[in-house]
Amino acid sequence: MSQPEVWLRGPVDGIPALLQPVAHALLQAREDVAGLVADLPADRLWRRPGGAASAGFHLQHLAGVLDRMLTYARGEPLSDAQFAHLHAEGVEDPALTPEALFDAFAEGVDAALAQLRATDPATLPEWRGVGRDQLPSTVIGTLVHAAEHTQRHVGQLLVTVRVVNA
């Protein structure tokens, strides 16, 4: 029998109680993406079925957006490297493999968990600006969005992988 979903396995060590759902969602996403990448031949990574975004885009975006949201949660501006990554998302690169893109995402999840462990729950309601326009959010808002946006793209990745493998 397979394990229950991550959120049913109990608390993640070292993560504040209010941030457990964020950690659970990110860990579940990492497990789900690992399975999808295992079923994705490299020659199908950049296919865009029906004009939809490719699996390669979703894998790049998963790592990139998670990194950007963690930066906003810390109250920091995006770096030139982060902007370069953003502009490269979805650009076909035959040198990239599904495994390499998964590894980048998995490292991002590890970084997110480390940041969650270091987050003082007292800071969760603090204001955070998002994007160039510094749209209003909070520490918890950016962290929750990081998790839900990740889950959204995992769902899109799942459908894309199933279609390109059909």
TrEMBL record:
Alphabetically ordered keywords of this record: Hydrolase
Annotated InterPro entries: DinB-like (IPR024775), DinB/YfiT-like (IPR034660)
Region forming the signal peptide: none
Pfam families: DinB_2 (PF12867)
Recorded coiled-coil stretches: none
Hydrolase listed as a keyword: yes
GO terms, molecular function: hydrolase activity
Domain DinB-like: 26-157
The protein's name: Metal-dependent hydrolase
Lineage: Bacteria, Pseudomonadati, Rhodothermota, Rhodothermia, Rhodothermales
